[in-house]
Amino acid sequence: MVMVPACFSESYAEARPKFCEAAAAAGGVLGSWFNPNGRGPGGERLFLDTARFGPMDAEKMLVLIAGTHGVEGHCGSGAEIAWLRDGGPAKLPADTGALLIHALNPHGFAWTRRVTEDNVDLNRNFVDHDKAYPANDGYRALADAILPAAWDEASRTETERVFQAFTQKHGAFGLQGAISGGQYSHPDGIFFGGRKPTWSNRTVRAIARQDLSRARHVAVIDFHTGLGPFGHGELICAVPPGARSFDRARAWYGDEMTSPEGGTSTSAIVVGIMTDAFSQELPDAEVTPIAIEYGTYSVPEVLNAVRADNWLHQRGDLGSALGRALKADMKERFFPAGDKWREMVWARAEQTIGWAVKGLAAG
Ligand SMILES: [Zn+2]
Questions:
Q1: Quick check: 203 and 106 in contact, CB under 8 A?
Q2: What is the CA(72)–ligand 1 centre distance, in A?
Q3: pLDDT for 160
Q4: How many A from CA of 9 to the centre of ligand 1?
Q5: Residues of the chain with pLDDT under 70
Q6: What pLDDT was estimated at residue 1?
Q7: With the CA atoms of 52, 55, 61 and 67 taken in that order, what torsion angle do they form, in degrees rounded to the nearest 10?
Q8: What does each C-alpha distance from 179 to 136, 147, 197, 301, 349 come to in angstroms?
Q9: Burial 90-111 (b: 16+ CB within 10 A, else e)
Q10: pLDDT of 124-162, one tens digit each?
Q11: How far is the CA of 191 from the centre of ligand 1 (A)?
């Protein structure tokens, strides 16, 4: 019986050795990818770590990913470590391997941010950067309200007024889509998709080619937090309905699976998502990707924390009392304190991993 809350960590610096020790104890082959673009808040060097289990030429591979959105790595790291300590690798069928990716965006994890070191939302960064970027007129209209000059009562009131006017016209989900769907026009804004592939983007592609090129069936589970009811893990399949991988995901996860394009998800339709890399880098494999999205707080509370964190890094002072308060709020919105939420995370993760392994076995 695994002690679930103890599998989670309060910082990247705590999570990294905990993951590596649990992976080594479970017999994993470890790999470390150094991110040269800066350090963590304690001066620590930043690594993406991987752990591999099962036959090196396994045709079937389970892939668990933590920390695509930095701060959300508290959740994914805890789930991965719980799976390791619970004996997950030993329970895999003989023909099935597993690849765990820990801190895909180590900078964001270390600094309690969703974004990478270049202020990029990694889950909007996997577009074709040689083509014209998708337009987001809603974001343009909201950009000044999203990043005000100052973070005070007056600017909060003004932002509230602008958001309410937008909501009256386009609805609350319309507002959420304009803000969070992804934008390529404001590098100092939020949900910015970048102008080129980030370090994490290039690295996850290299990992896919190195560790998964012999696989024929790949089940990807990417851990996220911040949308939906507290502690509930929504299984989001963000490939278009009609794609073969969509039908496979539906067969594996049933009606538990939701679809942004199908209008059944709490998530807006987003472009350039990270899991697209696996089908692109593994053309001979059948890739079945989902994101597991754990609810924390309400959408306005979560979006407000993201906005505040962006303001803090663009215009504020990290060392100030306000800076520390905004950081504490950011962490809580994506990683609620207390045992209950963490126990719910693992219960749903265990169930979902079980469905993925069953799906791989079927085929
Ligand atoms: Zn996320």
A1: no
A2: 6
A3: 96
A4: 18
A5: none
A6: 80
A7: 0
A8: 9, 12, 21, 14, 28
A9: eebeeebbbbbbbbbbbbbbbb
A10: 999 999 999 999 999 999 999 999 999 999 999 999 999
A11: 10
Maximal CA-CA distance, the chain: 61
Q: For residue 265, report the distance from its CA to the centre of ligand 1, in Å.
A: 14
| Whole-angstrom distance, CA of residue 276 vs CA of residue 180 | 18
What are the extents of the domains in the chain? 5-129+196-297+333-362, 137-190+301-330
Cα–ligand 1 centroid distance for 196 (angstroms): 20
CATH 3.40.630.10 is right for the domain spanning 5-129+196-297+333-362: yes
| Planar angle of CA 216, 217, 222, nearest 5 degrees | 130
CA of 159 to the centre of ligand 1 (A): 23
DSSP 3-state assignment of 286?
strand
- The Å distance, Cα 199 to ligand 1 centre, comes to 18
Residue type, 312: L
Tens of pLDDT along 289-306?
999 999 999 999 999 999
Distance 225 CA to ligand 1 centre (A): 5
